[in-house]
Design a protein that fits this description.
Four copies of one chain form a homotetramer. With 375 residues, chain A is α/β, with parallel strands linked by helices. In chain A, strands 3, 5, 6, 9, 10, 18 and 19 form a seven-stranded mixed β-sheet that branches. Chain A has a six-stranded parallel β-sheet with strand order 13-12-11-14-15-17, with helices on both faces. The first copy, chain A, has a three-stranded antiparallel β-sheet with strand order 2-1-4, with no helix packed on it. In chain A, β14, α8 and β15 form a beta-alpha-beta unit. The longest helix of chain A is centred in the middle third of the chain and has 12 residues. Chain A is globular. The two termini of chain A are 16 Å apart. At the C-D interface, α2, β15, β16, α9 and β17 of C face α2, β15, β16, α9 and β17 of D.
């Protein structure tokens, strides 16, 4: 039997057993060992983000390949041969391949009009049932993006690939048009502000630093996060407790950026006033990346004149294309000694405690919560 | 004596005489023959946009060079020698050359932190007094961008260079990152919506068509403008009278764009709800250019989630760098037979009637109003 | 029986009969009505470009859908439902979907490491045999990119979609980084030189003009082509007969571009000295697109200092991703009244005369040769 | 009296005395304390690169402001007030401000058509004579780009700003179009090869690493340089002695890049065969930056088909715009503890030994040679 945490109704997450079955002809079976709690999980759990139920949640997972059917393409996305027992991380998005975006903007397959995502859209009402990471076994489709772990990378760190992909893709939106030699886009010595220092915000700042940004400035209200951000290379962290007024924060950011405002501001709070603040933190001709509002948190008053006067780019970033997981792995491998990735996962939970993990994440009691299999 | 229309107080524009003087050592004297009424002129006139007074207004002018002092560089910006009597159009912005933007982002000299603009910031309280286009003689600084008219181009059309520069620069903001072959940026067959069909809006659509966009769709409420837009190559014009609801307009735009929304939306109305509508008209991964809000017209409610879900670029465009006037002249020369530029100027006024010209523009009684010297 | 022109050995193209079969479960059957002769066809025919034989050649085809098996996805790439008898044009490249380029640079699927192309790599040794356009019936794979013809577009013009895709993709390579407002990339009033005025070169210049380039200058040696280029909107055509020296041509191009050289030069001759000449025709900071050398025509002496001094971008363009066919159709539809596309096809041949068509193309006796079915 | 090393004829560099004069009204006087030997200095010295003589050479200098005339703008390029005794580094290029490039592509002022450069074009035949860094006092023009040293940065390191500007600008050419999330341009985890590990090559690799590149691979033949490159963060260095064949180096680079070739190759050797090799080292769709050939070192055989097949960008990089010095200072400040910048300067010379310094650089006996004032 397979054990999995199943969302059966809003607020109701139950550990359930499912029958184990042989992998389908073109499918594979994975034993997820680590599954991070995403910021959207509490929204699904609470019903704020509607999903089809029953659902085995969990979409930030890494694990071990247990087996596959004869038609499963046993290669990872780089063409590396896969063997039973191999540790892999999974790009959890399945784009349709035939909609307008998949055909004509394939680099933006994150915009696929008929997408499926493990742990979010793939419900548990039909065999083989388990398509989410809060489980001890799950079933993979043949077109799934599998990435064999690079040498030396642990499954725990690999399970951070999804939030790092979110963060790096958001940041990389600000690179266009790629002329840092003319002040256009990110490059050496460009200033970056990250608003909101959850796991994705911290990874974004760490990545910005790793790409040459200077200074990297973080803003949050939770001391544990501010402290963690410092450990991940932020040059300055601004505490909402100490700088409660927007004007205060703007003043500090300007003082760190020759009075101009930041070259790049990445909004990762997800509350409308934070977006309004972005436009005060950025310099003229700079770039604001809006990532935080994955769910609907209402509106803010915007004066479009600010956009005109700033001659600014405001760049939405929605999730990421699967290829970005490759960037995550490159990042984790390169900086595993510079950054304390292990410590980012401040709280781990057993599979039986998935509900607590989600609640701890919801209540912001941890930086990153992760569900880990007892094996 | 020089005659000029002088703003002495909000709502008070007087025809005044100033003493004529020899050109300064490093300056020149221009006889402006045509000066367009810009959409900002009524804002200055009414006091909505604060300016130093007294002020000779008028910043969309072309004219004839009357003479210059011995140290004036008698070449246009392309290095062409200038002679007395030459017809020129003037890039009316004087950037400082030494602020952060002038130094480190010189391609964005429109962001100059210490800018002067003929007819806007250069008041008439000190000799030689006249620095605006609503006059029969004005004085030029040595660093002024002068463009000799291309063969066959009339001074009247040349006076359209400023609004065309505004429009083309706004549109060209949407070209980045320049990969139309991958659906990124403008190219052949990309759909463009222009909201607001004043002179700049119409020129923007005409330019979009001239750059291969298809379809080019315009939205406005004034029949005269809708009709003019059709004459300038718009494929479709949507009348607010006929399609009063946002949802109606969204539906039509989608029906013209494979159900997706437009690749590019350029907001040139300058009213906050129009900006909010932009985000409903654009496709996912598309580009919204916000140009219309040159002045403060208040706020609109924005849900940042829309920006995220759309994975969109929102690009502010503030005025233009002087080099863009070169684009205007290239556009006017190339398409003078395809487009009825003469007819865009629906109303002309004598210098003595400058006030009426501004009021007619304010009251949207014309497409383009222009003050023309009686000589 | 299906009739098809089969390459059985270099220089040997035979009209052969193949048994007709029902469409495979997931395949379709097309009746190609028009198939253009590509510049590479003579290279395959002569053995200069090695291909697996026997081979039904022809990869620039449009035709009518005759039927399909139950698992064939009967929608075109825009999601439009397909019906028997529908006229379609075919994106003839089948990328593998799983190599590095297909996964990590899907916008460059033209670089697929395991590609198949109708009429080039898909041989005729196994059923259903016919996978090329010089035939009266051919078989399509399920993942084939089908484009339903836009209203009013003839199959004959649609068969030009492939060379137009080659040309527009090459030209669009020069748009990056998409800041025409700062002189970076193509935009209104940018000067474009096209070296080599075969069908692709002419289409490239026509597209450049349609995207606002000015002037558009062509260079070739064949009077028929020079004349045709003029009809497709080139502002100037330079005849190698009249301007035999490179220096002569450079002088003329500079005289048309303020003494600077062209903003963009597209090399479509395919002879090494033409590439060397590109670097003399382009301005500093401009863009050279190298497209012509699809086959190996040897080397030229290059001084890398020229690349440094010019601060230039040299951009290779290899074929095109299938999405570019959409651009072709948009172009054909938009400009079918501005440009004499019909006349570009100077010579048509019956299927029985495919060999002559290829030889006429090889000997440059025509602008565009096309094989047309007698039905 | 001012002492300066003057080039009076090819191969003849003499220590000469010039009269000291008060700073001109709008000029300033600088005491250069450190002046690096650029790779072009030996070319000027030998006569390979023609310059007007007599000439005080030296264009990589930092020093102390001694005084200025009343009209000298006593602010650095960031607007910081300057005081006598301030340590500054000088952007040694003076662009004309009025040519086509200065006006229409001001972000490429390195292409200025009427440029002057301290130590290269500004001869010593007229008062105040000394305009080069191999001197103990020199005179500055008012429009000179001065950068006050950031806190903690020594004059010695600041004198590295010029080669770092060369290297980072070259590297930053490869960032366009700024979509690392789609594999287009540089970003986290992109592979970079630097051919030629002189001071600029080493700084380029160090900067690439600092911008997230991985792996960073260097190629050279001189053991001292290879060793230094390792100390500056290169992941792999390939010795021409150990890998004498191009094929060997290609094989190793491919083995480090999933068999594909590098995302970015920067050619900094300046010998034609190195450029030819670039095209073998780069992956399809990648970027080659050609920087090395600042002087004429002859030609290499190029097959343009390689450019087509690779769908590659080849990007020339000529010197740098002055703004790039700001990037250098940001780089030096940020990484002064990560990288052993001091040690890059393997050899220092007194002013009297300037000739030896240039010869040592010519003979590649040092990594970086620098002339240091004895004060």
């Amino acid at each position: 039997m397979i054990r999995a945490a199943v969302l059966t109704a809003p607020g109701k997450l139950e550990l359930t057993s499912f029958p184990e079955s042989a992998p389908p002809r073109d499918g594979a079976v994975l034993r997820p060992t680590h599954c991070g709690v995403c910021g959207t999980d509490p929204h699904m759990y609470s019903g704020h983000l509607a999903v089809a139920m029953p659902l085995v949640m969990g979409h930030e997972f890494a694990g071990v390949l247990e087996g596959w059917g004869p038609d499963f393409p046993a290669r990872d996305v780089y063409g590396q041969e896969l063997r039973r027992g191999d540790a892999v991380v999974v790009g959890t998005t399945l784009s349709c391949g035939s909609c307008y975006y998949c055909r004509f903007l394939p680099q933006r397959q994150n915009l696929c009009q008929d997408v499926n995502i493990y742990g979010i859209t793939l419900g548990a009402s039909e065999p083989p049932y388990v398509r989410g990471g809060y489980s001890d076994l799950l079933y993979l489709f043949p077109q799934t993006w599998l990435f064999k772990l690079p040498p030396g990378l642990s499954l725990k760190l690999a399970a951070l690939a999804d939030p790092i992909a979110c963060g790096t893709r958001a940041l990389e939106r600000a690179f266009a048009p790629g002329m840092p030699w003319a002040g256009e886009g990110i490059g050496l010595g460009k200033s970056v502000v990250v608003q909101g220092l959850g796991p994705i915000g911290i990874m974004t700042g760490a990545a910005a630093r790793a790409m040459g940004a200077n200074p990297v400035i973080g803003i949050d209200r939770i001391p544990m996060r501010l402290e963690m951000a410092r450990r991940f290379g932020f040059d300055e962290v601004l505490s909402l407790a100490e700088l409660p007024g927007v004007g205060d924060r703007v003043r500090v950011v300007r003082s760190l950026t020759r009075g101009l405002g930041a070259d790049v501001v990445v909004e990762m709070v997800g509350l409308p006033p934070a977006f309004a603040e972005s436009l005060q933190l950025v310099r003229k001709g700079g770039r604001v990346v809006e990532f935080g509002h994955f769910t609907d948190n209402g509106t803010t008053a915007l004066n479009p004149q600010d956009i005109v006067n700033l001659d600014v780019d405001i760049l939405g970033s929605y999730a990421y294309p699967n290829a970005q997981i490759g960037t995550s792995l490159a990042f984790l491998s390169r900086y595993s000694e510079s950054y304390p990735f292990e410590d980012l996962v401040t709280h781990t939970f057993g599979e039986a405690d998935t509900e607590q993990a989600i609640e701890a994440s919801r209540d912001k009691l941890c930086v990153k919560a992760m569900v880990v299999s007892e094996s």
